[in-house]
Design a protein that fits this description.
The complex is a heterodimer of chains A (238) and B (234). Chain A is built from 9 helices and 9 strands. Chain A is an alpha/beta fold and 238 residues long. The relative contact order of chain A is 0.18. Chain B contains 10 helices and no strands. The radius of gyration of chain B is 20 Å and the shape is globular. Classes of the chains: A alpha/beta (238), B mainly alpha (234).
Chain lengths: 238, 234
C-alpha cells in the first residue's frame, strides 16, 4: 500500500511580497479525505494559499509539512489554474504530458490520455490543437491532465470562473467523481452555489488569514464571524 | 539603370547556362553557411532555452551581453579567428587558415549570438506562459527546456533563418580567414567584392541577384516545409 502524502500541515506560514503581507501568519491542517472550499473576497489570499501548498509560492516564514518527503509529495498532487495553460500541442498530447514527464512510455501515455479524453468528453477533439478549444473544453482538458496521474490531492483555483452553466456542471461532475475516488480536493471559488454543491467544509479567508472554518451547512446557515456574515449577505467587505 | 539591366541579363545568363563557376561558388556559399548555421543552432537554441528557464545572479548581465554580441563586427571576428588560426597562433598547427573550415568557424562566432538571442526572446515569452504548469507537473530543468524548444519551434525557425540570412550575406570575416581563393574559398559575397574591384559591375550584380534568390528560396522552402503560416497553428 502506497503511503498517502496527507495530511498536510501549515505551521505559522506567511507570504510577503514587496514588504506587503499577502498571506498569514496562519496554521492549517488538511486531512486525507473530503472537499475543502476556500472562499473570500478578492485579494483575501485564496490563490496564494493554494499555490503555497502546491509549492508554486515560497513561504516567507513558517513551514508546510506533508506526511512524506516534500519532493515526493509535490509529485503526487496536481493543480488546475483559473486560466488553463495549453501546451502548443494536440489535446491528447496535452493530457499525456504529465505522464511523459514521469517517464511513462509514449504509447502507454497516449493510450491513457485517450481514455481520459473519453472520461471528460473530449474524444471528438483528441487530435485537435488544444488552443482552438472553447474555454469550457480547455478547462476539461486541464482537469484530465491534472487527474491522469491519480493525484492524492488536487488544487483547483476558481476553475469555473469564466465558464457557462453547462461547462460548470461538467467540471463539477469531474470534481465529484475525483472526490469519490479518493482524491482530496482543495478549491478556491467565488461561487456560493458551487461551494454548497461540492464542499464538505468551508475555509473563509479575509486579509490573508482563515477567519472561519466550518462544515458547509454550519457556515452558510450560521457564520460565526462578522466578516463571514457580511460576505455571505453579499455586502461589501472592505 | 543600364548596369541593373545588364546585371539581370547576366544573372539570367549565368543561371540558364548553368555556369560551372557560379554553381561551384554558390554551392560553397551554401556549404559554409548551412554548416555554420547548423552548428550555431545546436549551440544557440539550447543556450537560449537554458537562459529562459534559469535564474542566476548575473542573468540580466548575461542577456545584455548576448544581445550586444549580436552586433559583433565581422571584420573583428575575422581578424581574431585569423590570429588564432595563423601559423604562429595557438591553433596554427591545424592548418585551417584559408580553408572553408576557417570560414565556418568565423560564421559560427558571428551567427551563434544572433540565434541564441532571438531564440531567448521567443522562449522567454513561452516560459512566461508555461511557467506555472511546468513547475506544477514537476518537470526537471531539461524537460522544461525540451518543452520550450519543441513548442516554440516555429519561433526558433525564425531565429535560425535570421542567422542564415546574416551568414549567407557575410563578407568581412570570411574574406579575412578564407582569402577568396579561386576554387577553394571563393563564395558569392567574396566573388561579388572581387568583381566590383575589377569594375565588372554587371557580373557583380548578376552574382548579387543569384545570392538574393538563393536566400529567398531557402527561406521560402523552409517556411513551406515547416508550415509556419498554417492556419490555426502557432
Amino acid at each position: 500500500m502506497v503511503e498517502s502524502i496527507l495530511p498536510v500541515s501549515l505551521q505559522n506560514v506567511s507570504v510577503r511580497k514587496g514588504g506587503k503581507s499577502i498571506l498569514g501568519p496562519l496554521d492549517l491542517h488538511i486531512g486525507e479525505t473530503g472537499c475543502s472550499i476556500v472562499i473570500g473576497p478578492n485579494g483575501a489570499g485564496k490563490t496564494t494559499l493554494l499555490r503555497l501548498m502546491h509549492g508554486l509560492e515560497r513561504a516567507s516564514s513558517g513551514s508546510v509539512k506533508w506526511a512524506i518527503r516534500k519532493s515526493e509529495a509535490y509529485a503526487r498532487q496536481s493543480f488546475v489554474f483559473q486560466t488553463p495553460v495549453m501546451l502548443r500541442r494536440s489535446v491528447i498530447e496535452n493530457i499525456a504530458y504529465p505522464l511523459s514527464v514521469r517517464g511513462v512510455r509514449r504509447r502507454t501515455a497516449r493510450a491513457t490520455a485517450e481514455d481520459w479524453t473519453e472520461k471528460v468528453g473530449l474524444e471528438y477533439a483528441a487530435h485537435r490543437e488544444a488552443h482552438v478549444l472553447s474555454g469550457g473544453e480547455k478547462q476539461k482538458l486541464a482537469m484530465a491532465r491534472a487527474l491522469i496521474t491519480a493525484p492524492d490531492i488536487l488544487f483547483l483555483d476558481e476553475p469555473t470562473t469564466n465558464l457557462d452553466g453547462a461547462s460548470t456542471q461538467e467540471i463539477e461532475a469531474l470534481i465529484r467523481v475525483a472526490t469519490e475516488e479518493g482524491t482530496r480536493i482543495v478549491m478556491a471559488t467565488h461561487d456560493f452555489g458551487q461551494a454548497r454543491r461540492l464542499a464538505t467544509e468551508i475555509l473563509f479567508m479575509y486579509h490573508g488569514v482563515i477567519h472561519e472554518r466550518a462544515a458547509v451547512s454550519d457556515f452558510f446557515d450560521g457564520p460565526k464571524t462578522k466578516e463571514a456574515t457580511t460576505f455571505i449577505r453579499g455586502d461589501l467587505l472592505i | 539603370m543600364n548596369d541593373i539591366i545588364e546585371g539581370l541579363q547576366s544573372a539570367v545568363g549565368l543561371i540558364i547556362h548553368l555556369d560551372h563557376d557560379l554553381i561551384e561558388i554558390s554551392l560553397r556559399s551554401l556549404q559554409v553557411t548551412i554548416s555554420a548555421v547548423l552548428i550555431a543552432a545546436a549551440i544557440g537554441l539550447p543556450f537560449g532555452a537554458w537562459l529562459s528557464v534559469t535564474r542566476f545572479r548575473y542573468r540580466r548581465l548575461a542577456i545584455a551581453l548576448l544581445n550586444a554580441l549580436m552586433g559583433l563586427p565581422p571584420v573583428v571576428v575575422g581578424l581574431v579567428v585569423y590570429i588564432l588560426l595563423s601559423r604562429s597562433g595557438p591553433f596554427g598547427v591545424l592548418n585551417l587558415l584559408f580553408t572553408p573550415t576557417a570560414m565556418i568557424i568565423a560564421q559560427v562566432i558571428i551567427v551563434t549570438p544572433i540565434i541564441a538571442s532571438i531564440a531567448h526572446q521567443s522562449m522567454r515569452e513561452l516560459w512566461f506562459l508555461y511557467h506555472d504548469l511546468l513547475i506544477s507537473v514537476k518537470t526537471t530543468k531539461w524537460q522544461r527546456m525540451k518543452a520550450l524548444l519543441w513548442d516554440g519551434r516555429r519561433g526558433l525557425l525564425t531565429a535560425t533563418l535570421t542567422g542564415f540570412g546574416r551568414g549567407i550575406g557575410e563578407i568581412g570575416a570570411i574574406m579575412i580567414v578564407g582569402g577568396n581563393i579561386d576554387h577553394l574559398t571563393r563564395v558569392l559575397t567574396t566573388a561579388i567584392a572581387l568583381e566590383v574591384g575589377k569594375g565588372n559591375f554587371p557580373l557583380a550584380l548578376g552574382l548579387g541577384i543569384v545570392l538574393i534568390t538563393i536566400a529567398i528560396l531557402i527561406n521560402l522552402a523552409i517556411h513551406t516545409l515547416s508550415r509556419t503560416e498554417r492556419e490555426g497553428t502557432w
